[in-house]
Amino acid sequence: MEKIRQTLRDHAWARWTALGIVAFTMLTGYYLTDVMAPLKGLLEQQLSWDSSEYGFFTSAYGWFNVFLFMLIIGGIILDKMGVRFTGLSAAVIMVLGTAIKYWAVSTHSLDGQTWNILWLFPMKAQVFMAALGYAIFGVGVEVAGITVSKIIVKWFKGKELALAMGLEMATARMGTALALATSVPLAKSLGHVSKPILVCLILLVIGLIAFFIYTFMDKKLDASQAEFDKQNNVVNEEEEFKVSDIFKIVTNKGWWYIAILCVLFYSAVFPFLKYAADLMVNKFGVQESLAGTIPAMLPFGTILLTPLFGNIYDRKGKGATIMLIGSLLLIFVHGMFSIPFLNHWIIAIILIVILGIGFSLVPSAMWPSVPKIIPENQLGTAYSLIFWVQNWGLMGVPALIGWVLDKYCVTGQKVVEGVTVNTYNYTLPMLIFTSLGVLALIFAFLLKAEDKKKGYGLELPNIEK
Ligand SMILES: NCCCC[C@H](NC(=O)[C@@H](N)CCCCN)C(=O)O
Which residues of the chain register pLDDT less than 70? Predict the structure, then answer.
């Protein structure tokens, strides 16, 4: 009998098609994640939300992931049950959470109601229900993220791993860019702040169907790998994941440096994006209806650059150095944003472009570096633990910024379309973002040193010759 020399992943068309499908599912998830960011002003006008309520809602993304350990549980399920079951479940959870959020923002049945959350905090019922839906969605999109990372490693290990991860992130960021650029026009043209969420809901259902289609490819990949192993007498030595492996992951210094760099770096980017449209209005005097357009350039820039830097990492290596340079750019940009007299909108555009470069450098090198430190059977859990640490920042920093804005940064009030809203000075929030960048740089240095000591190969190319 003729021996099989190739598995499905050795066919370029198959691995790039698989990537395209799962990346699309992530695009739909990222669209919903950021769809409310440019609507902060409209939420204040149409639903009377204030900055703290907006901050509370935004931080809900991480509630269940962080406090109920849903992300870690998701990672363990991923390593135990595999990518098909976990990915499908995650996509269903995204749809469910978004349906609840849409209902909360569009219904009138919650009008005027206040609930005591945990018998302690009075909160508008509408804000709470929208946040609950977003928290459920947050579990789905984060577990989908780790699942897709593991899927990419499965198809691209020893091949164009960083390019593939870069392309997946680029596709996902198209979702972010679309959200930033389209949510205000959609809300205005369709007549209500809830309408962009409805558009997301439809997209998420399509994303779920796409992932369902992917599961057939995944089955074929497993079958071709099993056949290859059988015919070539390959003994699969990969051990099954054990819950005790978590101990191995969390006692690995290199893993910790990536996790801490990740939380610091991402906390200075994603939460910044939530307030960036408002920053454009308050600091740079940009019109409300156009305010989302400048921050939207950031994800647009990363769409081109993340795969480009990923490709460089695949071919030339220098992963740890790439993360260092990205952290430096982050400090520069937020430092400049915090200087009060630099308030021309052209400066805002230039800084967002530079931030786009930084935000392409770090992720393009960080995520493909994890499989160099952690074995594949523990990868789902390792990614989920990194996401878990990161989610503390994604949850805490927006709430912190919302609170800081309300407490220390209100400069006055103005009337927008007949409604009185606060105006803010963004210097203090931008200094907070700058400090996160400085800490990120320190951990990028520590990671580079640890790589040198342990020989993880972060500075080596990913493509095996
Ligand atoms: N294959 C790379 C996976 C990580 C991508 C990374 N995503 C995250 O860090 C998520 N935990 C947070 C997503 C928040 C979406 N606005 C990324 O760079 O997007």
Answer: 1-5, 236-237
Q: Is 168 in the pocket of ligand 1 (CB under 6 A)?
A: yes
Structure confidence by residue, pLDDT tens digits, 172-184? 999 988 898 899 9
**Alpha carbon nearest to ligand 1 atom 19, residue:** 169
Per cent of the chain over pLDDT 90 is: 75
Question: Which protein residue's CA is at the shortest distance from atom 13 of ligand 1?
Answer: 142
CA 278 to ligand 1 center in whole angstroms: 23
Note the pLDDT of residue 116. 86
Rounded Cα gap, residues 379 and 373, in angstroms? 10
Nearest alpha carbon, ligand 1 atom 17 = 169
Mutate which of 36, 83, 148, 169 for ligand 1 pocket (most atoms within 8 A of beta carbon): 169
* Ramachandran quadrant class, 241 (left: phi over 0; alpha: psi -120 to 50; beta: rest): beta
Q: Cα–Cα distances in Å, from 391 out to 271, 440, 447?
A: 11, 16, 20
| Annotated domain spans of the chain | 11-223+242-454
Three-state SS string over 113-175 comes to CEEEECCCEEEEHHHHHHHHHHHHHHHHHHHHHHHHHHHHHHHHCCCCHHHHHHHHHHHHHHH
CA distances from 359 to 218, 265, 268, 297, 324 (A): 30, 9, 10, 12, 12
Amino acid letter for position 26: M
Q: What is the ipTM of this complex?
A: 0.96
Report the distance separating Cα 27 and Cα 19, nearest Å: 12
Ligand 1 atom 11, closest CA: 387
Q: Where are the alpha helices (DSSP H) in 340-458?
A: 345-373, 379-408, 427-454
Q: Give the predicted TM-score (pTM) of the model.
A: 0.88
- Structurally, at CATH architecture level, domain 11-223+242-454 sits in Up-down Bundle (1.20)
| 177 close to ligand 1 (CB < 6 Angstrom) | no
